[in-house]
Amino acid sequence: MRKRIKYFQLSEVEYNKLKSLLGIEESNKEKDSSIQFCLEDAYEVISNYCNTDGVAEGLYNTLFRIAIDLYRHENIGSEESSLGSVSSISEGDTSVSYRSSNSEFKESLLKDYKKQLNRYRKLVF
After folding, report:
1. What is the distance of C-alpha 3 from the center of its chain?
2. Positive or negative torsion for Cα 63, 68, 69, 70
3. SS3 29
4. Given the DSSP bridges, would you call strands 7-8 and 55-56 parallel, antiparallel or unpaired?
């Protein structure tokens, strides 16, 4: 008999926990919409990758790790985009080139968590 997987729904508890993990005081409401977006986006990424209607309880901490990565690396809530990593530096007349952070980050995001996500992934034909 297959074990039935329990899913959880996002609530105020998860939003406050993410704020705490990011070092943002609970009373600080300035970044609430950015935090909510990151948590919901991470929830959606996991649901889509695993082909499920929600996030399994066993992926609870993975959800927070992905949301933290999204918040920190994609510069959510800022008008400026993140620069990315340095690809080249020139000294004469000073020049610095950056790699595209979006393509680099999006490729690596799921790679870091595939091992955990694959345990709950359903194959769809």
Report:
1. 28
2. positive
3. coil
4. antiparallel
Our separate counts of H helices and E strands in the chain read 4, 4
Rounded distance between C-alpha atoms, residue 85 and residue 104, angstroms = 9
Q: In a 3-state reduction of DSSP, which class is residue 111?
A: helix
Tokens 């680099």 appear where? 104
> What is the model's pLDDT at position 40?
92
pLDDT digits (tens, 9 = 90+) for 95-111: 666 555 555 555 566 77
Q: Which residues contact 120 (CB under 8 A, 6 or more apart)?
A: 5, 50, 52, 56, 58, 59
How many other CB atoms are found less than 10 A from the CB of residue 60? 12
How many CA atoms are closer than 13 Å to the CA of 113, on its beta-carbon side?
Answer: 25
CB 71 within 8 A of CB 34: yes
